[in-house]
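User: Hey, my collaborator sent me this sequence without any context and asked if I could get a structure. I don't really work with proteins. Can you help?
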Amino acid sequence: YNSVPSSGTIEVCGLCRCSILSQEGKKEQDKKLKQHVPLIYFGTRTHKQVTQIVHELRKTAFAGVSMAILASRDHYCVHSEISKLPNKTELCRDCVKENACDYYKNVKNVNTQERIAMLGLDTAWDIEDLVTTLTRRKVKACPYFCARELAKAADIVFCPYNYLIDSRIRKQMEIELAGNVVVLDEAHNIEDSARDAASLSITTEDIQKAQVNLAKLVDKRILVRHHRPLESMLSSIMEWHTSIADTLKAGEYNKFTRTWLGVEMVRVLDKKCALNEHTVAIFNSHFQEATRYAKEQQQIARGGDPKEFGQLDEETLHG
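Assistant: No problem. I've predicted the 3D structure and written it out in structure-token form, which is a compact way to encode the shape of the chain:
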């Protein structure tokens, strides 16, 4: 320490060990504080509600917060051809893998909060604002992938309910809820969204097509130990469906229905289709191997002959 001045206070010289430890402790404390700042996920029921929330955000002192809006390709795709087609997701993935999308290539030029601000989006912006800004002649970048990049360094991320509820979407969009803050607008609607996220509609045609394609793979002796159990499982589901056809009641839109309690459905699937907690795990392991093989084949012969095991089959088995 320096000598005590006339004021009677002790001054730290900055050279002794206690001072150095104090400074190091402060740096470590500051580092921990920065590490524990949570990200805010703001979930809404519809994309239209995001527009309303952003409009209100602009009126506050937090209008300049770093942000991102996660949305589907239906809202973000600007590709001259793909944006006009119904199967945007699959076509976009193919286009990106083949490095054939100029908009995607330019994302690296606008993938930070600072670069977006330099383009004029320095206050709360909406989906339409991002699309308009990134489709300028001198920019031409993909809003969908740009929004995903912006979310990595944002303080608040807006998205629909299902992006937070559905585990598959969370994984795809790299959403991590642990340690972060989740705000749900009009949360009384969350029950319906949760139910939708855990539900899937599959037609008998979907099941039959997947079954036929799996049978072809078995006949060709391709991954028989994985494809045959899946084909047998779908076959048992079709047999059970046929056996109850006479008990279904005609409903709307030419659909025939019957309702079971959850406990009853679990019992039926176990007895008639051998689907239970144990076998589902086994079928899932076969499914993972089957989809891995299908994706490898698609990469090898992209654009060639249709594959016996396609995207529709994968979605059916996943359900």
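In plain terms: The longest strand covers residues 40-44. You can pass these tokens on to your collaborator as they are.
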